[in-house]
Amino acid sequence: MNRTDANIICIIQMDKEKSLNVTSTTSLSPAAINACRDWYASAAGQITLARVQRIVSGMSTDIFGYYALETGVLAGKHSFLEESRIASQFSLGAVEGEPVSVRGTPEHLPFSLSNLDLVIASHALDCTDHPHQVLREIERVLVPEGHCILIAFNPISFRGLGQLRYLFKPHARHCQFYSTFRVREWLSVLGFEVCEIVSTGFCPVFNGHYVFKQDRWLDRLGSKFRLMTGNVTIIHAQKKVSNMTPLLPARKVKPVLRSGMVVNPGVGRFVRKESNDAK
């Protein structure tokens, strides 16, 4: 199936069913999108992006299916599905003029119920005011046993510590970082099972450059011991659907015998009684 056929299928799905309980507008801030993209455009960000690409490729290499979607801040700028085995791939973006397959927002995915096999969301939770809605939409469009890969900034990192400068002026903060523990809770409520969590980019960065050139040993140390203090966290989760059949309550049968009763084996037998005159 070529790209044109995939786009036609996508449009058909958009018209077939609208998203439930969502708004048609997005809360993705242009300032947040630009700040995130500027960080990845820096020298340190490019190194981190290459590592994220390798990690995501390793997570998605054994995922099979028909349709895969990329959404979030990096959709239209970078593709994480280059090594994916899923043939029909879509990219969904909200910025005009970018080479994406579909125009839309992470809070309002223009796909019908249970149609996608894989969704990769890059910083869609960081740059929105409604992270729960983003996850609900991902759960809605995924098929049972479908996969999602979330790419997000880590608050327990050097980049997360930089957010402390907005402690007393939260209105100036472009992105909101959420801990891995909180995201795991949200996914659990929606019925997802977390398969793997990987963190990368452990060096302190200032204005897009490493603070010290000799601190690359932090990256080697963090990768070797799989520390969870990297600037970027990748979460791989799978949508689980219960296949159990609910059991109906058993019908109550009134017992024939009551406690304390004695069975008389002679009951019901016919006994012939002879009169004394017959003798």
UniProtKB/TrEMBL annotation:
It comes from Thiothrix lacustris. One of its GO terms (molecular function) is methyltransferase activity. Residues 101-150 form the Methyltransferase type domain. Coiled coil: none annotated. GO terms for biological process: methylation. InterPro entries: Methyltransf_11, SAM-dependent_MTases_sf. This is Class I SAM-dependent methyltransferase. It holds the Pfam family Methyltransf_11. Keywords: Methyltransferase, Transferase.
